[in-house]
Design a protein that fits this description.
membrane, DUF1275, about 70% helix, transmembrane helix
Length: about 230
């Protein structure tokens, strides 16, 4: 299978918009995981690796099990994302629509389970929530990585920020227009800010909002025309 971006160009405005919506949803859910699930990330695995390193000093009170659960679930989600790409990548509309729709369903299920009290966001039951959310964003990260250019990763923005500065006219001067990079940074920050504000009222609502946004993005990709054969 050739590069998917050649078959379904992410340069199209609707696709860029859909990926920015997913970046916003990442900020929403990481606000939930960090502020309500015991200082752990479900989309940013770099943070979890650092937390594990810092946890060797018990006095800091940093979690050990939660980051491990998040990372294991993330890896499983990423594995599924790679498998979907392998078997459905030649049909981008079905692949992307299915992957993101599956993520939206899992997010919605998590919101329902939390909202009905089946799962709690405190104590041991929170590990199940962390696992479900980590799986969702492993799937998202793997799918987007196989689809999009490096400035639209939707989950990790270190490379985006590096490219924005190092390749700018003040740096190497080799970068293209930075609009998408800046938009990614703003979308993530805005999602985290909105998530933090809404968490003062509802945790379920924040996860549910993320599910709705990802479902909208899935719909856009699902309705995209299939590329011509060959």
């Amino acid at each position: 299978m050739g590069p998917v971006s050649e078959d379904l160009p992410v340069a199209r405005r609707w696709a860029v918009g859909a990926l920015l919506v997913m970046t916003f949803s990442t900020g929403l859910v990481d606000a939930v995981s960090f502020l309500r699930l015991g200082h752990v990330f479900v989309a940013n695995m770099t943070g979890n690796v650092v937390f594990l390193g810092l946890s060797v000093v018990p006095e800091y009170g940093l979690p050990v099990v939660a980051p491990l659960v998040a990372m294991a679930a993330f890896v499983l989600g990423a594995f599924l994302g790679g498998q979907l790409s392998r078997f459905l990548g030649h049909r981008p509309r079905r692949w992307l629509g299915g992957a993101f729709a599956g993520q939206a369903v899992l997010l919605a299920l998590t919101a329902v389970l939390v909202g009905t009290g089946v799962l709690r966001v405190g104590g041991r039951p929170a590990l199940t929530v962390i696992g479900l959310l980590g799986f969702c964003f492993g799937l998202q990260n793997a799918t987007v990585r196989l689809l999009a250019p490096r400035d639209l990763t939707t989950t990790v923005l270190t490379q985006t920020l590096t490219a924005l500065t190092a390749q700018s006219v003040l740096g190497a001067g080799t970068g293209s227009l930075p609009r998408r990079k800046v938009a990614s940074l703003l979308a993530m920050c805005a999602g985290a800010a909105v998530g933090a504000l809404l968490l003062q009222v509802t945790t379920t609502g924040v996860i549910g909002l993320a599910a709705v946004l990802v479902a909208c993005a899935a719909g856009l990709f699902a309705l995209a025309p299939e590329p011509p054969p060959g």
